[in-house]
Design goal:
The protein is of the alpha/beta class. The chain has 12 helices and 8 strands. It starts with a strand and ends with a helix.
Length: 233
C-alpha cells in the first residue's frame, strides 16, 4: 500500500478497520496513531519512528492530509476504538494479549473489564506503565519474549511507547499498538466527546471547551489547517 507523506511523516490511508486489521495481521509491526500535532511538530526522531512502522489516521487533521493527496476513501481510525476492534476480531480465535500502561489501578480495572466483556479472553500479561529502571524494562521485554503474545498494547504516550515497542518487537514478532491514554478512556476515567462531535471531526473542540488550558497546544491547529489548505502539507 502506498503511503502519503506530509512534512516527512508517512501515513497509510486505510479505508476501513478491516483493511487495517488485515494489513497488520499479515505484516506484524507497530501501529502508530497520527494526528495533526504529530505531523506539524514532527522531528527527525519522531519521523523516523513513524516511518519505519505503520502510521494510520487517528485524527481528523491526518485524514485531511491524506484526502488532499487524493486518498478520498481514507477514513479516520481512532486508536481508542481500534484496539478494542483488534480484540473483538481476534479473541475468539484464541489470540493472546499483553497490556502495558497506566497506573496500577487503571491496568487492573482494564483487565477486569476486558475479561467481563470478552469471556475467556487470553490475557497472558499486564503491568502498569511506571517502568523505573533499565532492569525493569529489560525484565518486561524478556517476559513478553517468553510469553509470546499475539498482540501487545502499550499505553504510555509518544514517543516513549513507540521506542519501547520497538525494543519489544526486536525480541518478539507480534502486532503492537501504542494507546496513549486509552485505558483511562476505556475504564471511564476520561470521557470521550459525544458521538455528534466525533462524527463531525470536532473532538478537539470538545476537549478545548472542557479544558481551556489546552489552547496553548491547540492554537497550532489553526496554523496546521492553513498549511493543509494553502501550503505544502
Amino acid at each position: 500500500m502506498k503511503r502519503v507523506e506530509s512534512n516527512g511523516v508517512k501515513i497509510y490511508p486505510f479505508t476501513s478497520f478491516e483493511q487495517l486489521l488485515q494489513f497488520v495481521e499479515e505484516k506484524k509491526g507497530i501501529l502508530v496513531a497520527i494526528n495533526a500535532e504529530k505531523i506539524l511538530h514532527a522531528t527527525e526522531q519522531t519521523r523516523t519512528i513513524i516511518n519505519r512502522n505503520i502510521g494510520y489516521c487517528d485524527g481528523v487533521g491526518a485524514l485531511m492530509v491524506v484526502r488532499k493527496h487524493g486518498c478520498h476513501d481514507a477514513m479516520k481510525i481512532p486508536g481508542c476504538v481500534l484496539w478494542l476492534r483488534i480484540i473483538a476480531s481476534t479473541w475468539k480465535q484464541g489470540k493472546t494479549f499483553y497490556l502495558v500502561g497506566g497506573r496500577q489501578e487503571v491496568i487492573e480495572a482494564t483487565v477486569e473489564k476486558l475479561r467481563g466483556e470478552f469471556e475467556g479472553i487470553r490475557i497472558v500479561g499486564a503491568r502498569n506503565g511506571y517502568i523505573k529502571s533499565e532492569e525493569e524494562k529489560l525484565a518486561l521485554i524478556e517476559d513478553i519474549a517468553a510469553r509470546k503474545p499475539d498482540v501487545v498494547f502499550v499505553a504510555m504516550g509518544s514517543p516513549r511507547q513507540e521506542l519501547l515497542m520497538e525494543e519489544m518487537l526486536s525480541r518478539h514478532q507480534a502486532v503492537y499498538q501504542g494507546l496513549g491514554g486509552s485505558f483511562d478512556v476505556y475504564t471511564g476515567r476520561v470521557r470521550r466527546a459525544p458521538v455528534w462531535w466525533q462524527e463531525h471531526g470536532l473532538e478537539w473542540l470538545y476537549r478545548l471547551i472542557n479544558d481551556p488550558s489546552r489552547i496553548k497546544r491547540q492554537i497550532y491547529l489553526f496554523w496546521f489547517l492553513w498549511k493543509v489548505r494553502f501550503g505544502n502539507f
